[in-house]
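Record 1 of the preview.
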Amino acid sequence: MTAPNPMTGAVQVTVDGPIASVVLAHPGRFNAMTRSMWHALKEVFVRLHADASVRCVVLQGEGGHFCAGGDISEYPDFRFSEASLRAFHEDDVWGGLQAVLDCDIPVVAMIDGNCMGAGMEIASCCDIRLASEAARFGAPIARLGFPMAPREAQLVSQAAGMLTARQMLLEAAVLDAAEMKARGFLHRVLPAGELEAEGARTASRVASLAPQAARLNKQTLRQLSERNGPSALANTAQGAIDLIANAYRYADSQEHREGVTAFLGKRSPAF
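->
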């Protein structure tokens, strides 16, 4: 685990058996993301992706908040130059987000308190999103005089829906957890004191399942998402060929055999 620097924050990671815990930590800033934290997020998820022993990642913020956005105190250093602003969004921010998106391990987000801007973007990269009733969601950056970067806006609009993205960006709306669940962004909303336990149960369920199947499912879902859904894939001949060509290579794998054999034998599989 990395101790957070109060000036730059940190992305902490611990691995306990098949479950990794990743914590966004920036004391006093509601875990707002600094440039160094974006770099750390990329490094952490690249490393986890390559670790065959990890079957589930739980991503959360420290101290009752998920992530309040970007660390605005850093902004004057780079936001006012087109070149440095582009580098920030396309290299720093997107590098971190892409690493989460590219991770073949299922990622469970546990969201409490503020989930704003960068927090919405990071949560949008996760596979299963749990939240406490106290969680609040938004991207009120119009109040700061700038828009969301294109790839980040696409990410949020795909995960939260275009209606929600428009409301957050154009109205600076902040929505509660119940509303975000109703709109399909959240899988479950828990009373404040039950989020940690539900996160642990969810991670345990995911980790108990076939790890190879999980990784292959993530690869398939990623390709479908990148093509904006199965209908777009069906209309892209080469994309369909590429996906199908690789879709069944697991056929003779030990894990595949064990899962089917265990089911037929009415026993729990030993993955």
